[in-house]
Write a structure and sequence with these properties.
By secondary structure, the chain is mostly helical. It contains two helices and no strands. Helix content is 79%, strand content 0%. Helix 1 runs antiparallel to helix 2. It is rod-shaped and about 55 Å long.
Length: 57
């Protein structure tokens, strides 16, 4: 998933150079969506790690 996010981030940067029109705007929107999904998944993983079962010695 990170690979796709990086791919679309590069696509979004190129789109910014062309003014975010047409297909470029779609790519930027998709990159934004994938970034938000990755961030949400990361935050959920961190929360589950912090709330997880305690280790018994």
């Amino acid at each position: 998933m990170l690979h796709w996010a990086l791919t679309f981030m590069i696509f979004a940067v190129v789109a910014a150079l062309f003014g975010f029109t047409g297909l470029a705007a779609s790519g930027a929107g998709l990159a934004h969506l994938m970034f938000n999904m990755f961030l949400f998944t990361f935050l959920i993983a961190v929360i589950f790690r912090l709330v997880g079962t305690p280790e018994h010695s």
